[in-house]
Amino acid sequence: MTDVNAIYPQDRIVIREVGLRDGLQISSGFPSTDGKIEWLQKEYAAGVRHFEAGSYLPHDRFPQFADVQTIVDALNRLDGAHSIALAINRRGQADALVGGAGELTCVLSATEEHNLANARCSRRETLEAIAGTVELRNQSGHKPLINVGISMSFGCSIAGPVEPETVVDLAEQCLERGVDIVGIADTVGYAGPRQVGELCNSMSRLFGDRPYVVHLHDTRGMAIANAAAALDCGARVFDASLAGLGGCPFAPGATGNIVTEDLAFLCRTAGFETGIDLEKLVSAREVLAREMPGEPLQGALSKAGIPKTMIPDNA
Amino acid sequence: MTDVNAIYPQDRIVIREVGLRDGLQISSGFPSTDGKIEWLQKEYAAGVRHFEAGSYLPHDRFPQFADVQTIVDALNRLDGAHSIALAINRRGQADALVGGAGELTCVLSATEEHNLANARCSRRETLEAIAGTVELRNQSGHKPLINVGISMSFGCSIAGPVEPETVVDLAEQCLERGVDIVGIADTVGYAGPRQVGELCNSMSRLFGDRPYVVHLHDTRGMAIANAAAALDCGARVFDASLAGLGGCPFAPGATGNIVTEDLAFLCRTAGFETGIDLEKLVSAREVLAREMPGEPLQGALSKAGIPKTMIPDNA
Prior knowledge:
Two copies of one chain form a homodimer. Chain A is α/β, with parallel strands linked by helices. Chain A has helices spanning 4-7, 33-46, 68-76, 90-99, 112-119, 123-139, 164-176, 193-207, 223-232, 260-269, 278-283, 285-291, 301-304; strands spanning 14-17, 50-55, 82-86, 103-109, 145-151, 181-185, 213-215, 237-240. Chain A has one domain: Alpha-Beta Barrel (TIM Barrel). In chain A, helix 2 packs parallel to helix 3 (68-76), helix 7 (164-176) packs parallel to helix 8 and helix 8 packs parallel to helix 9 (223-232). Chain A is globular.
């Protein structure tokens, strides 16, 4: 069985680039396959090792992910890179297992109302399906990590407030079913740093030395503040999207995922090691500017550069 | 003598709108006088009470502040509004005293190098000039608050790192000279939340129940995270700029001041009272969109709206 702590070393902050999946979920355009490979190679050269490659979904309905297998293959050829793929149904999961993705992500909603609207079944039924996914993995020759992302963990666009205890309880039920890693997602950008800190404290207690993922959106400008609170409360794995790609399906035109390069800068200011070279990371934005010319690129570090206080004397 | 705690009540977070001054310092265009008055009236209607009106500077070199007296007068006619003006030389200070500004802001740099470059004198000489400003105010019939903004408090674009002890020592020297309120400014956006929390802890110890100001720029995307850290460490007064107006003179195209509406939202998520109606505040951006059509308007809350979790049931 793959050791989750080998994939997610606990001596550093792991930033997972999810722009290739979550960033392209509702974008108006998407990069060519060659463009995607150049994008991930540039981030790999900057030190990023964890990538969400895409989603195993019907090609006709999701043309932006039609090349997911090519992207997984490209990642698997890079030494030390970890390929993650969203696979929300049995067909997609079977394809991902055969395709050799290093991690399969399933989705569960924090609220019954959103789970019913999104997955058309109850949370209990989704949890049983997740148990089936774990079983499928266990019987497979290739044994990827199984990840469950709990959407709406900080408030739901349908049901409203979400108690942290609800999320921690769902996370615990995932672990009991053999899930390796759980993510808490501020899907609609409702959270503030106080709330994020509280939930991360509880998650850190539940997970101990095992990793959990914090997935933040900058829908209302709080993403970096929320990440700072999560870091202070023990979170060590974060999803992020280069140039903040990805919007909010419930707020057209809103900003998307937390910006990878600004998050890496935050970690640097707070003395957390990420293994990422900030200047090389920023330079990867060139691929997006060329491949997705109509897409607004977010982020502040890229406009201002590294502070004088962080440039080594011998640079 | 004006009581600083009466102007800055300690039972809430005071957000000072500085867009009319700092936001227009290096902007390519600026609103008409009528546009400025509509702007401040809309923010006043949203609950904002503290405004930096402009700068008393030569009209020919700073046409964006030629109407500063008209703006101060407009503010002074609004019940409970507090007018602040930058006045960095004797002539400007005399004009501000005659003109009835409620607060005069002087500037001191945290580093000797920047003070020499910016004010063409040592920090000691600037501190003596500030003592002279306090004396001028004491002899005046109108007695505004005297504020000193310490620029480069979190790192200097010339000298590099700045120790928190240096800033606290300068703040103490200001208080010893009769200054009422001191601001710590991340002029070039170098700070991260850990550093901001450390300096705010020291400032909170020095100032006790008296207010000090935190002036943040979003140059590298850290402004809201830095404000969250400052709030956690006892800061109660913040400068901010509607739509994040204002750039960075050292980084052309970079983002500017912390966004007023996103900061007010942060306070709301953390349970801090500001007296500000978020939706009314966001609507004030219309004035900027109309009066400054070429200027990029920053901020996320305005694109996404208030979360469902914050809308009262009877709304």
